[in-house]
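Researcher: Sequence recovery benchmark, item below. Answer with residues only.
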């Protein structure tokens, strides 16, 4: 059975060691680095299943590391940062993180979030149907296995969570999903501050789909209920 490897990128040695201690108790293999450039190199040279990234790191910050990772990989990323305002969290999610944990933190909560992200990632890949290589609706074409989205012949770059939300909505057009439904299915976790998280991702997804340029919205808000695909 393949061991799961988790990248820990933090220039505070004590924090990295603490995370490693708790993750190794869960049976995970850890790879620690102390700056952003080392984090990118680690992902390129090792089989990494999940990354825990500090935002404020030497060489490259967590945002830039995430951008570079996302160019080639779709592994779950958790930001662990002392930047603790709501705006900081929203920015982190928009910039590509799958989850955001603030310092100081409870190590057991971080482990729980790691477990949830890995579980969600595994379930998503298992549920991808090999014979269903394309989903098409309303000028939108989705290739689930390649995690590629094309709208009117233009490639749309999405974060993993944005892709999964869109794929969920498109796969069941006209079905209305509440924010809680989306959070549970995409994040694979119980409802935890999910409404705002989903709203932020939907807003970013709509912007990338150019909905401000089109009269007909691809993602329709059903007020007081949730969201549905309107293609």
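Model:
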């Amino acid at each position: 059975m393949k061991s799961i490897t988790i990248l820990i990128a933090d220039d505070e040695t004590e924090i990295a060691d603490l995370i490693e201690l708790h993750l190794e108790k869960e049976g995970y293999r850890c790879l620690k680095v102390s700056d952003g450039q080392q984090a990118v190199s680690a992902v390129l040279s090792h089989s990494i299943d999940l990354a825990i990234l500090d935002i404020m790191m030497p060489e490259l910050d967590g945002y830039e590391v995430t951008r570079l990772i996302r160019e080639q990989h779709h592994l779950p990323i958790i930001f662990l940062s002392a930047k603790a305002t709501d705006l900081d969290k929203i920015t982190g999610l928009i910039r590509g993180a799958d989850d955001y944990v603030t310092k100081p933190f409870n190590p057991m909560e971080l482990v729980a979030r790691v477990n949830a992200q890995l579980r969600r990632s595994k379930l998503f890949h298992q549920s991808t149907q090999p014979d269903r290589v394309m989903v098409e609706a309303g000028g939108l074409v989705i290739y689930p296995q390649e995690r590629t989205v094309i709208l009117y012949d233009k490639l749309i770059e999405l974060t993993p969570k944005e892709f999964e939300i869109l794929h969920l909505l498109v796969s069941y057009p006209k079905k209305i999903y509440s924010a809680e439904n989306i959070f549970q299915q995409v994040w694979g976790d119980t409802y935890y501050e999910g409404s705002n998280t989903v709203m932020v991702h939907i807003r970013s997804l709509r912007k990338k789909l150019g909905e401000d340029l089109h009269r007909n919205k691809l993602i329709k808000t059903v007020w007081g209920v949730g969201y549905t695909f309107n293609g």
